[in-house]
Amino acid sequence: MKCLKDETIRKYVKNMDGLLEEMSEVQAIPAVRIDEKAVTFLSGRIFRFLNFDDIIVGHEKADDLDALAFNDREMQDTIIEFEAKSRHFKRHKHDPKKCNLIVCWEDDWKECPIDVLELRYFWEKTQEKFCKK
Asked: How far apart are CA 71 and CA 22, in angstroms?
């Protein structure tokens, strides 16, 4: 069963303030088309604020899965798929049994069976925090 957004954030984000500050430094977000490559790039920018100790991007454990992240404290590996939209995971015919987390720009798949971190959510929080009028 997919976790609620707040539960997923608590599970994967260790430093929300740092993550939001880092996102605020990426100036091009509203001006670019957010695709899978942009999601991978943004994920690299915020990686140190997530609950992982190390990451291998482009791992070859399963089909087209993009990263394997490690959490030494919990002795847990997380297989991550990067997508522009969470529904692309299904469109690309990825196997949910071979992935623990989708990192995407937009979470548009309400019945997604695995955890989703939506980067657009963090961008919107950044705008609220740093761009108040």
From this structure: 21
Q: Which two tokens stand for residue 27?
A: 């100036």
C-alpha of 84 from chain center: 10
Residues 43 and 57 sit within 8 Å (Cβ to Cβ)? no
- Amino acid 74: pLDDT: 63
Alpha-carbon distance of 110 to 87, in angstroms, equals 9
CA 101 to chain centre: 7
- Give 10-27 as a DSSP string: HHHBS-HHHHHHHHHT-T
* Model pTM score: 0.83
Give which of 102, 82, 116, 80 is closest to 5, Cα–Cα: 116
Residue count of the chain: 133
Q: Compute and round to an integer the Cα radius of gyration of the chain.
A: 14
For tokens 């690299």, the residue is 44
- Tens-digit pLDDT profile for residues 13-27: 999 999 999 988 886
